[in-house]
Amino acid sequence: MENFEKQFNQPKPPEETKNVEPPKQETSPVTESSEKSPENLDTPETNLGEGEEKMENQEKNLKLAGIRKEVENIGDRLGKPIDEGIKETVVMFKANELPTSDSCEGHIERGLPVPYVEVSAPDEPEERFIGQNEAFEKVANKYNIIVEEAKTSKIDEAYWEAMKECSQNEETEEYKKWNKENEKLLAKGHSFLEEFYKDRQVAPDVKLQIEEGVGNFRIHNGGEDYQPVIEEEQEFSEEEKKIRSEKVEKYRAEMNEFTEFLQKKFMGDFNFEEYRKNLADQLKEAPREKRKEILSEAQETAEYKKARTYKIESIKRQEKELELLQIQREKLGLRPEGEKLSEISKENLEKIKSGFVKSAIEKGMFSSEAEAIEAIRKEKEAVEGNMGLTVNLSPESIARFFEKGKQETLWDHLKEAGSIENMKRATTAQGKDLHSEYISYRETAENTLKQYVPEKFQDKNPIYAALAGGTNRDLERGACPEYGNLFFELDIAQLEKSALNFNDSFANVEKKEDGTYRFDKSSLLAIDDAEEAKAVVNLMKKHNGQFPTIAGMVSGEDAKKIIRIDGKTSGYVEVAVFDEITPEKVKSIGVSLINKDDLKGIGNLIDKFSQFKDKFRFSVENAKVIGGLSANWLEKNFADKVKFSEKMEDAQELWREIGLSPDAQYSEVKSAIDNKCNDLWKDIKLYVGADFRSKAQPGNIGMIRKNMWRFASKPEVKQKVELYSKLEEERLFFR
């Protein structure tokens, strides 16, 4: 049966077809009605000249009005009208004597993301083959169905059984005559496309082509996207919607260009664009005092009025196409066409700057607007000359990165954990139930952000970095040290793949009353504006950082002195990098050591992933953060990649006690310190009372120091306790 179907080179008649046009009554090309299409109300076609020129144009415009009225009344079997986005194309096909039988504007969420128009001669004979009706009646009786059900292939097997039987006969004379008309139409279609593409080059998938059927042909584009229509609607992901939307836009644009070509063909061979260009050149070259006279004379000619009519209709058609496109994109939650990030960013930056200046003056940071603006300018210069891209993380996250070979998004961790319900439940400062709806909020933000990065990067999940710069401290700690004392430094070129936001983009998502989510674009930034926004961040941190905090919060009267923009303090310029971050793409891994707690897990990380040793660099805030022995080992093994803000204490005595030197392996030093501490602890316990032994535990430095008085009369024990205390300090790194 399959091979039999193929010999007809046509699909079986569908149950439901989009924009299939019903049999048409012959329409007179010129009607006596003076009714004009809404698209022609403002055109000057009734004053295009005198005599034959005027009459010709009146007839053509009346014909267009009649065709448009006819097209408005065409519907498919369900009574649905022709798609708005293809109506004018259908009008121009008909105006150029290409009668249409089916059409579609191309759809995003269903069917084909490709526009097409099907052409077929009117008045198709009821029978293609002699005895066709009798064959269908016979099959209908066999399957106990009515003839119409058999003819429309409601019963698939019945339709092809009847066609197989009747196709043994010759074609009817009426069908042969009708098919000759289709051959003429096909030749005309090929001729139009050949002329349209004579001096036009487009991508293969965008180029219009002809698909021949039996008794019809389709003009369409789309390349591989021109696939069988999906009869039943299916769900598409946001990413799939975005891709299909972009495809249908470019395919429709080419069909619209062909529509303009057909309009020119219908109105005559007069080249409107060339005429307008020549007139513009003539006016430009003429003396200024002659230009008004030349233009007045041109306005009286039929050519000028033709060109003006064409221009007005072209503008109206483009406005209509853009309006329909906007509606389609808004339904999908996609960015309206024509909305530019640069425009959004400029507006957002001005709000950020004005909000900062106002608050900074109120809080006494500056005495005038001019002083604040000058401070922003100077800080921007500092950022421009000293900028980086950082991702602050914990040691555990860095270890996970090395193990996985790539940096993952948070919900990858959640999936691995098994359930988001396992997370601690809390409500965020924005009033969001973060843990039960985190993914919905985050994906809403990302689906918006990805629209502002090049298309080739939009299939990646973003990694969240922050813009660092302006001060060395910013680059030594990472832009967001509150997220972890370790950080990746990424190549600044990654900005090409990034979308930027003032503060956390997650905070820009709102849940609407209907349960859907919306992203507020009031913080989006273009790369060109990010440096100035970072300058504002740095100035706010400089001012706000002078007030002491408790658990990250400023308390008491100091809270009234904090600079805020729209009620919020600024932490960073977020950079959502749409790329897979692997170890090879990380320039360096910064380690910021500000207090003793920052040492936890660092040594083990370095030892376990020694293959990435060359990527590490260290910044040590002061001598109290790290023991002298640990500092010696870092200096020896990382050389100029370690920066100490203070001179470290000499640790030669400790090295002698454990019997090693700074060039020993990490595991060797760790083992030697462990063994020495264990031996010392055994000796210490022998010289203390039962009361102390019950309280003191190995490694409890605080308890040991509080009880040093116990060893005042025992110098040899006191010496061991002091050595033990120093080695326990070193164990913070060698653990």
How would you explain this protein's 3D organization?
By secondary structure, the chain is α+β, with helices and mostly antiparallel strands. Among the domains are: 51 residues; 68 residues; 253 residues, no CATH class; 118 residues, no CATH class. The protein is 47% helix and 10% strand. The strands form four sheets. A nine-stranded mixed β-sheet has the order 11-8-14-6-5-7-15-16-17. It has a four-stranded antiparallel β-sheet with strand order 1-2-4-3, with helices on one face. Strand 12 and strand 13 form a beta hairpin. Helix 2 crosses helix 3.
Mean pLDDT: 79
Number of helices: 25
**Helix vs. strand class:** alpha+beta
Helix content: 40-55%
Low-confidence stretches: 1-18, 22-50, 413-434
Beta-strand residue percentage: 5-15%
